[in-house]
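I have been asked to look over a protein record a colleague put together. What it holds is a sequence and that sequence's fold in token form. Please read both lines and tell me whether the tokens look consistent with the sequence. I do not need a full report, just your reasoning and any doubts. This is what I was given:
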Amino acid sequence: MGKFVITTRANGEFQFNLKAGNGQTILTSEGYTTKAACNNGIESVKTNAPDDNRYDRKEAKNGKPYFNLKAGNGQIIGSSEMYESTSARENGIESVKKNAPDATIDDQTS
């Protein structure tokens, strides 16, 4: 089962990583100025993850595929790692769809 891990960045901002059951990070958030905003981001991921239309499949300048998960308003709420192939990226998207809706929250900031 997946889990959201909340941590604090060096600049004091909060961020979350969605980790798969094997502990691998499958989605990383932007930085948030408050923990409440970070928690709202997690809820947005849980809501939007099952919808394939919310995934923006991209390719980095170095040719590596990755994806962004977007909210209904088009704002990016999470980004993936860089993958070696488009099929690996698709597996990453499927993993987010499977893990995010029921993921627990592990707050490591307190």
